[in-house]
Amino acid sequence: MFFPCKTAFNRNLSVIICIFALGSPLSKVLLLAADWPQYLGPNRDAVYPGKALTRNWPNNGPNMLWRKRDIGAGMSGVVVAKGKLILFHEVNRYDVIECLEADTGKTIWKNNYASNFVPGYGSAAGPRATPVITGDHVYTMGGQGILVCTDMVTGKTVWKIDTQKTYRASDGFFGMACSPLVEGNAVLLNIGGEAGAGIVAIHKDTGKLLWKTLDDEASYSSPVMATLLGKRRAVFFTRTGLVVVDPVTGKIDFKNRWRARIHASVNAAAPMVAGGRIFVTSSYNTGALVVQANGDDFKTVWSNDMSLSSQYASVMHRDGFLYGTHGRADVPPVPALRCVELATGKVRWSEDEFGDCLMLRCGDRLIALMESGELVLGSANPVGWNEISRAQMIGSGARSQPALANGRLYIRDRNQLVCLDVR
């Protein structure tokens, strides 16, 4: 995204166990593989559930399996399912939904539509939101708010909605950037539309409106699904603040205003839910908030602007600890990498001036794609930061969330998409 529980939806994700016979029964190898079909991965928590990564990398980084040069503009992350990869980018004033072979990078099909999106405030061109693949469809939303359902087999448009025309949604500062979330029959989005269309649910098969709610403007954050108080709920971080909503009816269970006092500000990191606790974080003298689902209500656990205040990068959770960046990417000091106790907000360690990056986790390994195009591998534990490997893999301007699928890491910058072997 700009700068992403076990669900019924997740049953459609390709998490498979493959056993390869290498001779005798004693020489069988168990390999756990997983797709990356949506923003922040299978469970939208930036965690790869597949086999652990290699312990370290060569000096020049992981082995590059393929590279696609001269890709179009955009900050949308790629997604992978069933051997196919979706690259969403802008080429010659068209938003292009391009399907590639995940193993080779060869194009299978393309779907496109004319784009009239003009980025504001000097930001880059192209789509911001990351697609989502579910079943035989892929859902995308461009910077000007055009939501498209494309057939994954044929590449043909199933349905298309211009949310700016239909719901009078706004470009905001940098264009529209909410990565679609599919739950049941609903495609869920914070579009910031008028007349109570701050959050909408669109039928995934027909494109028809299921429900709309709130007048909240759109943020640069994307929603996640979680089980809270025994119920499946969508958790949004709109421009106004935290919202917990029933994905079937649109009923609001909980709201908490959490935004900067100044107008020139955004909420961008995705919410993180663990053990009934919801964590949201913002910058601009706002900071982090943790609320606990308890009984039939939600209570504030802690909040401050000193623990983990992220401008746009989403955080990861492991064993009661959060890992993420603290600070703004556009003003000094350089953001720090931190480990914070979820229960208390206590900073366990801080790697100052770590830099602007997007991250994911696999087991105890943390992968950080720096804005400079460097790829960093380290260990995620509350004792301290241990950098294992660092290598320059792509060019600068790397502002798209990495994807890790079936042991392959996909990263992009302004001009290229590369596939790396990290098994």
Key terms for this structure?
single chain; mainly beta; 45% strand; 1 helix; 34 strands; disordered N terminus; 423 residues; globular; 4-stranded antiparallel sheet; Methylamine Dehydrogenase, Chain H
Largest sheet: 4 strands, antiparallel
CATH architecture: 7 Propeller
- Domain unit count: 1
CATH superfamily: YVTN repeat-like/Quinoprotein amine dehydrogenase
Structural class by sheet pairing and helices: mainly beta
Mean pLDDT: 91
The proportion of residues forming helix, as a percent range, comes to under 10%
Annotation, overall tally of beta strands: 34
**Gross morphology:** globular
Query: Rg to the nearest angstrom?
Result: 20 Å
Widest sheet, order of strands? 3-34-33-32
What does the oligomeric state look like here?
single chain
Q: How far do the termini sit from each other?
A: 25 Å
> Which CATH class?
Mainly Beta
What percent of residues are in strands?
A: over 45%
Examine the coordinates and then state which fold CATH places here, giving the name of the CATH topology.
Methylamine Dehydrogenase, Chain H
Low-confidence stretches: 1-32
Total helix count?
1
SSE diagram, text form:
Elements: E1 15-20, E2 29-34, E3 63-69, E4 79-81, E5 84-91, E6 94-101, E7 107-114, E8 132-134, E9 137-141, E10 146-151, E11 157-162, H1 163-167, E12 181-183, E13 186-190, E14 199-203, E15 209-213, E16 224-228, E17 231-237, E18 241-245, E19 252-257, E20 272-274, E21 277-282, E22 287-294, E23 297-304, E24 316-318, E25 321-326, E26 336-341, E27 347-351, E28 357-362, E29 365-370, E30 374-379, E31 386-392, E32 403-405, E33 408-412, E34 416-421
